[in-house]
Amino acid sequence: MLYLAKVVELAGIPLASPGRLWLVFGVDTLFALLFAACTYGFWTLRRWGRILFVWTVIPWFAFEVAALFTSGRTYSGLEIGYTVARAFIAGLFSAWYLNIPRVKALFH
After folding, report:
1. Which of 15, 67, 99, 106 could be disulfide-bonded to 72 (CB atoms 3.0-4.6 Å)?
2. Which residues constitute the domain of residue 44?
3. Do the domain assignments include residue 12?
């Protein structure tokens, strides 16, 4: 990670800095840990795993969309549509599915 921060600094990538890189790394690491906990909760069919997933996927979706527009890169409409659709299907659709009564009943 230190090497990557130095590469970003030396390359002079617009809107990128070592501090911003560390911030994104920290947020991504937090999401990875939260989703790992959700996975354990799903595996053991725990109610808290389902609830944690629903509450984790909402800020993850917002982070994905915000990262798209603050990266400093110009995206085509197709790339923006694909990224938003992918995040929506992966996250928000899953949260909706986990709140269907017959699915909720499986978790204890």
Report:
1. 15
2. 30-104
3. no
Type of residue numbered 59:
P
**In the chain, how many domains are there?**
1
| Separation of first and last alpha carbons in the chain | 40
User: What is the mean predicted confidence (pLDDT) over 66-83?
Assistant: 80
Distance from C-alpha of 42 to C-alpha of 68, rounded to nearest angstrom: 29
Contact 38, 52 (CB under 8 A): yes
Judge whether 40 and 50 are in contact, CB under 8 Å. no
Structure tokens at 14: 């617009």
Sequence-distant (≥ 6) Cβ neighbours of residue 80 within 8 angstroms: 68
pLDDT over threshold 80, residue 67: no
Q: For the residues 58-77, what does the mean pLDDT come to?
A: 80
The total number of residues shown for the chain amounts to: 108
Tell me whether residue 7 is in a domain.
Answer: no
Residue 13 corresponds to which tokens in the numbers above? 């990538």
Q: At residue 32, does pLDDT exceed 80?
A: yes
CB of 15 closer than 8 Å to CB of 7? no
